[in-house]
Specification:
Number of strands: 8
Low-confidence stretches: none
Oligomer: single chain
Largest sheet: 4 strands, antiparallel
CATH class of the largest domain: Alpha Beta
Number of helices: 11
Mean pLDDT: 86
CATH architecture of the largest domain: Roll
Structural class: alpha+beta
Length: 310
């Protein structure tokens, strides 16, 4: 099962109030339903690839629709032979569409209106959840590409969705695709996580955040390891250069030009070619030669200068 389907099934498995069920159906029907005419009858067809979602939608429809309901399962013969569940409402659809807020008092289809939700956040969130269940998708948190999108049949519906989600501080962008469909999408990981939280899929949020945090920790560890390797490489190169300078001074029989401390440090460097400055500092101090890390650095600068002069 895809992560997007897990999110949708978690949403639909919650307990909703009557008004929330209407709001969810409103969002789903607006973006999923197809009105057809067959044998002189008006029919409304809803489709989903999830058995759980189909059962919940059937339960919701039975509550607000008076008429005949047909249920069919279509088995695909390609790819993974995926099943599609189809719910068809046959009868007086006007009353049903008015009941869930899609038709107005005159049984005319009305545009989305905030008044339908009486400024109740829970109803607005149920409406957004219905839209996502209908045409939404989200990438698995296991991928490195964070992406959540919702598809619409026309630009006006996409703009309405952006307007709604702006109330919750989301920044959906609209993209027109070649098949005359419009996509509203977000790519920021925190925004994707917050949207899943908005539509009340808490388990999916935890899975998403755990994966995201694990990836961030792994990336930080890799970054630190790369920095350590780079620093070690630089330190070894510097150490080799220091050894060459000391050997040059000794070859020219000018070792006596170094101060006592510099001579002690030079001998330690030859004995400990991979030791960092902090280790050389510790060895010198432990053998009765007081010095600081910056002092070690300054002495190597002196050794370099004398090596160049001789």
């Amino acid at each position: 099962m895809s992560f997007a389907l897990e999110v949708k099934e978690e949403i639909i498995s919650h307990t909703f109030s009557i008004e929330q069920r209407k709001s969810l159906l409103n969002g789903f029907v607006r973006n999923n339903a197809e009105m057809i005419f067959s044998n002189g009858k008006e029919k409304l067809k809803l489709v989903t690839i999830s058995n759980r979602i189909a059962r919940s939608l059937l339960s919701f429809c039975k509550e607000f629709f008076v008429g005949e309901i047909e249920i069919s399962v279509i088995q695909s013969q390609i790819l993974k032979k995926q099943k599609t569940f189809q719910i068809t409402l046959i009868g007086n659809l006007n009353i049903f569409l008015k009941e869930i807020g899609i038709y107005d008092e005159n049984f005319e289809k009305q545009k989305f209106s905030f008044n339908n939700f009486k400024k109740q956040s829970s109803l607005l969130r149920a409406y957004i959840a219905g839209i996502f269940i209908a045409t939404g998708s989200v990438n698995s948190p296991e991928t490195t590409n964070y992406h959540l999108e919702v598809q619409f049949k026309d630009k006006a519906a996409a703009i309405d969705f952006v307007t709604i989600t702006d109330l919750f501080n989301f920044e959906f962008k609209i993209l027109e695709r070649k098949n005359n469909r419009y996509v509203c999408y977000i790519k920021k990981s925190l925004m994707v996580s917050d949207f899943i939280k908005l539509i009340d899929a808490s388990q999916a949020v935890m899975a998403f955040e755990n994966q995201r945090i694990s990836r961030d920790v792994y990336n930080n560890i890799n970054r630190m390891n790369n920095i350590d390797i780079s620093n070690q490489t630089k330190a070894l190169a510097a150490s080799q250069k220091q050894i060459e300078q000391i050997e040059h001074i000794k070859t020219q029989k000018m070792f006596h030009l170094l101060s006592k401390k510099a001579q002690i440090l030079a001998k330690l460097r030859l004995e400990n070619p991979e030791a960092p400055f902090s280790e050389l500092e510790y060895i010198m101090n432990s053998h009765g030669t007081p010095i600081t890390k910056s002092g070690v650095s300054n002495l190597f600068k002196t050794i370099k200068k004398i090596s160049e002069e001789v």
